[in-house]
Fold:
Amino acid sequence: MTDKKVLTIQDISCVGQCSLTVALPIISACGIETCILPSAVLSTHTGGFTGYTFRDLTDDIPAIAAHWQKENIKFDAVYTGYLGSTKQIDYSIDIMEKLLSDDGVRIVDPAMADNGKLYYGFDDEFVKAMARLCGKADIILPNITEACFMVGAEYKQSGYDESYITDLLAKLGDLGAKVVVLTGVTYSEDKLGIAIYDTAAKSVNYYFHEKLNVSSHGTGDVYASAFCGAVTQGKSIYDSAKLAADFTVDSIKKTIGDDTHWYGVKFEKSLPMLVQELNK
Ligand code: PXL
Structure:
């Protein structure tokens, strides 16, 4: 076990099992000290609830970062998730420049879209800014919808062939990120998976798992958090991508059948499995 410290920048959705309420427990369970920078506080996430409260914390970010800089605090990784504005993206870029240790890792989950659509409140200007943040990252974790928005490609839910994915990966690599971990890739009825593109080696590797025919909220955050925990713990990118996928599938399985739990997945029930696999 390493002794590493991650900073994750995303919102607190108080109820809804996404963003920081997912990242903090999952990365901590991986044995990593998890520092947080909440970008906003919402009563719930925006995906299915109505009437949620929203407290924007953008203007607090520079003073928080300045204090850390004064204290000489450095992070081994900075992982960004859902960000609420282009200004927050600019601040995140600045934080990566100033507060990462020398060999620190920039991990960006461009959490802004799914199933062919942008989440509520996002527009083209935000997409462009997110593409810029991805260009500065070591590792990005888009789903296919986010990838298509960022590179201006047509969104296809299924029925595509390998060239569609390799083209997306190449264009994502052109944004500037070193490694692309593309989620939600499927070439068959019963398998879903991850495509991992190393831009330096120009290599593409896949990990496929069973396809569960359910649509679950917050799984992108569960996936990215487990990936961040595993990679910071020293696992290879491929092993981290695989472990995060197995953990996410397990979390979804633990939720299936409970219709009252439509807003997120019961990842807590799968944490023992994550820790066990991580320590193998
Ligand atoms: O899971 C991504 C996410 C994070 N934070 C907020 C959201 C969403 C997705 O809808 O609304 C506030």
About this structure: The mean pLDDT is 97. The domain at 5-271 is CATH 3.40.1190.20 (UDP-N-acetylmuramoyl-L-alanine:D-glutamate ligase). The first strand starts at residue 5 and ends at 15. The radius of gyration is 17 Å.
